[in-house]
Design goal:
By secondary structure, the protein is an alpha+beta fold. It has 4 helices and 4 strands, in the order H-H-E-H-E-E-E-H. A 4-stranded mixed β-sheet has the order 2-1-4-3. Helix 2 packs parallel to helix 3.
Length: about 140
């Protein structure tokens, strides 16, 4: 008897990914409702509990790209989020995001942020390749 697709599903992982997708939708909807430029990269803090930490970190590059959130800083609790009047709040279940709406970075700072992101992404890819080679 051949196993069906149901046997290969990781339902807890799917649920975690769905929560993170809900966060992306909430961020994008909040930006749209506030009439913010969708293509603009905005600094964003998110409160992600430890239980979702692994899934969030694995999906961080996708969250950054899809929500145009850069830098994207993770906090463990909502209380740790910045309480700034120049932020927009997006809530998705147990997750909350604070989006910086005031332009705070000049071109030099934006370039430095982009370089840091690219270095982090490159380091992640190098680590994944190392893991594959050492298997």
């Amino acid at each position: 008897m051949r196993p069906t697709a149901r046997w290969w599903r990781d339902e807890p992982a799917e649920a975690e990914v769905e929560v993170i997708l809900d966060l992306i939708r909430a961020i994008r909807n909040a930006r749209s409702e506030a009439h913010l430029e969708q293509a603009a990269w905005l600094a964003t803090e998110v409160a992600v509990p430890s239980a979702l930490g692994t899934a969030f970190e694995a999906l961080r590059p996708a969250v950054e790209r899809l929500a145009h959130a850069r830098p994207l800083d993770r906090r463990l609790t909502r209380d740790a989020l910045a309480d700034d009047p120049d932020t927009l709040t997006a809530i998705a279940g147990d997750l909350e995001a604070r989006i910086q709406v005031a332009a705070t970075a000049d071109d030099g700072e934006a370039a430095a942020l982009e370089r840091t992101r690219l270095e982090r992404e490159l380091a992640d890819q190098v680590e994944r390749l190392r893991d594959r080679l050492l298997r």
